[in-house]
Amino acid sequence: MVHGMLMGATTTTGNSRLYGTALLRGSDCKSVNKTHIASQGRRQHCWGPYVMRHFLPNNCNLPRQSGLKVEAGWLFNRSDQEMDASSERSESANEDILVFFFQLDLATRVQYALNLEQYDVAQQLRNKLTEVEEEIVRQRDAKRGSTSKTEAQDKAISILRLRADMQEAIESENYAVAAELRDEISKLEAESLAASAKALAYENAQYAFRLGQKVRHKIFGYRAVVCGMDPVCCESSSWMEIAQVEKLPRGSNQPFYQVLVDVHVDPNLLVAYVPEDNLIAFDQPDMDRFDHPYISFLFYGMDTAGDFVPIKQLREKFNRPRHEVPVDPQNEEDGREG
Question: UVR domain spans which residues (predicted)?
Answer without folding.
Answer: 156-191
